[in-house]
């Protein structure tokens, strides 16, 4: 019985990999990297982080995709974190990042399931409570409201020539989008 199984597996392997020796037989698509994933794409994104009624922060970010692996990051820093004035400011800070791998539908349309993390903090920056570090003055930030957690969703990529249009929807970020350039290898 073991000999029959080994013979069947060997026959399938020879049939699969041995077909590359014949110039008339096309290579199996399983052995090739998908053509639409052989690229480098860089883009700019804009959208909401942790979109809710009380914590709706607009942020800018960047995305990158190389060989189908995708990463994006949106960030909105505090405005007065290094301010030298002695005052108090109501501020927000937000960070969101996602990772994924693209699934080509056709050459010009791709879907990227993503997972990541989103965090929004709303509070008071206190200019009278500061410390000095190697980066200069750092004002204290008293968090009054926070929304953070695991984030998941998807990104739709529409590609024309070397231009990409991104539209994304995730649990915390709701809708956000961007544009980018793609370079094929």
Give a brief outline of the structure.
Helices cover 9% and strands 63% of the residues. The protein has 1 helix and 9 strands.
Q: What is the overall pLDDT average?
A: 82
Unreliable spans are 13-22
Distance between the termini: 47 Å
The outline comes out as elongated
**Structure summary, number of beta strands:** 9
Discrete helix count: 1
- In helices, the fraction of residues equals under 10%
What is the H/E order? Answer: HEEEEEEEEE
Strand order of the largest sheet: 1-2-3-4-6-7-8-9
Largest sheet: 8 strands, antiparallel, barrel
Radius of gyration: 24 Å
Share of residues in strands: over 45%
Instruction: Give the class from helix and strand content and strand pairing.
Output: mainly beta
What does this structure look like?
With 185 residues, the protein is mainly β. Helices cover 9% and strands 63% of the residues. The chain has 1 helix and 9 strands. Strands 1-2-3-4-6-7-8-9 form an 8-stranded antiparallel β-barrel. Strand 8 and strand 9 form a beta hairpin. The longest helix has 16 residues, at 2-17. The protein is elongated, with a radius of gyration of 24 Å.
């Amino acid at each position: 019985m073991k000999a029959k199984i080994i013979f069947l597996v060997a026959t399938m392997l020879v049939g699969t990999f041995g077909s590359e020796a014949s110039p008339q037989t096309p290579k199996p698509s399983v052995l090739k990297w998908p053509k639409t994933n052989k690229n480098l794409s860089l883009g700019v994104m804009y959208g909401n982080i942790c979109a809710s009624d009380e914590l709706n922060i607009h942020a800018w970010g960047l995305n990158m995709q190389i060989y189908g692996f995708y990463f994006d990051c949106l960030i909105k820093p505090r405005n007065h974190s290094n301010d030298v004035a002695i005052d108090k400011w109501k501020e927000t800070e937000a960070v969101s990042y996602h990772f994924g791998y693209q699934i080509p539908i056709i050459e010009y349309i791709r879907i990227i399931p993503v997972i990541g993390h989103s965090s929004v903090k709303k509070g008071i920056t206190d200019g009278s409570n500061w410390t000095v570090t190697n980066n200069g003055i750092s004002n204290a930030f008293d968090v009054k409201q926070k929304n953070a957690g695991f984030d998941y969703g998807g990104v739709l990529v529409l590609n024309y020539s070397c231009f990409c249009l991104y539209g994304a929807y995730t649990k915390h970020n709701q809708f956000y989008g961007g544009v980018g350039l793609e370079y094929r290898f």
